[in-house]
Amino acid sequence: MKRKEFLEVGKIVTTHGLKGNVKIQPWCDESTVISDQSRLFFDSKGQFYREIEDAMVYKNVVVVRFKGIDSIELAQKLRNHIVYINRNDLILAEGSYFIQDLIGLNVYDADIQGLCYGRVVEVLQSGANDVYRILDKGGKERLVPVIDDVVLKIDVDNDKIIIRPLEGLFDD
């Protein structure tokens, strides 16, 4: 499966102050993913970007000042833009994945050869642990808790996740 080079990480929701700062609503687990960047892209192909002059996490947003944006009027023109980062600018910890890389992966049983439960269509972030929402070819939905006892292997390069469902998890 071809992975996107540029990842959506947030949206510019409003301005902050009068000197050109903007507030970005992050779409990632850690707001520092945005604030630690030296540039943000404004398209999914990485053709248009702005360098970051200063950035800080403030409450539930990231306040960013872009080089060359020094007035509220210029900042207002950036509102509602989606911002992206280049996946190569990030190093993920072992066992961490971009959610968009998990969407579409086939989910197989660890003990029953060839049994495919379906594809991941959504990753729900419930707090204690993530939950994979899986749909089979018939449209049946299953929810899989992302815990070590259930999810045994994630192989993004080979389009599969191997699970061992807990007793009763898939009882219909």
Distinctive features:
single chain; 172 residues; mainly beta; 6-stranded antiparallel sheet; 6-stranded mixed sheet; 3 helices; 12 strands
Describe it:
The protein has 172 residues and is mainly beta. The chain contains three helices and twelve strands, in the order E-E-H-E-E-E-H-E-H-E-E-E-E-E-E. The protein has helices at 32-35, 72-76, 99-102, and strands spanning 6-16, 21-26, 39-41, 49-58, 61-66, 82-86, 106-109, 116-125, 130-135, 141-145, 151-155, 160-163. It has a six-stranded antiparallel sheet. Strands 10-9-8-7-12-11 form a six-stranded mixed sheet, with no helix packed on it. Strand 7 and strand 8 (116-125) form a beta hairpin. It is elongated and about 60 Å long.
Topology (SSEs and partners):
Layout: E1 6-16, E2 21-26, H1 32-35, E3 39-41, E4 49-58, E5 61-66, H2 72-76, E6 82-86, H3 99-102, E7 106-109, E8 116-125, E9 130-135, E10 141-145, E11 151-155, E12 160-163
Structural class: mainly beta
Distance from N terminus to C terminus (CA atoms, Å) equals 32 Å
Name the beta content range: 35-45%
Largest sheet: 6 strands, antiparallel
H and E string: EEHEEEHEHEEEEEE
Name the strands of the widest sheet in spatial order. 3-4-5-2-1-6
Number of helices: 3
Helix fraction, binned, reads under 10%
Mean pLDDT: 91
The tally of beta strands, per DSSP, is: 12
Unreliable stretches covering 5 or more consecutive residues: none
C-alpha geometry = elongated
Task: Supply Rg.
Answer: 20 Å
Concise structural overview:
This protein is mostly beta strands and 172 residues long.
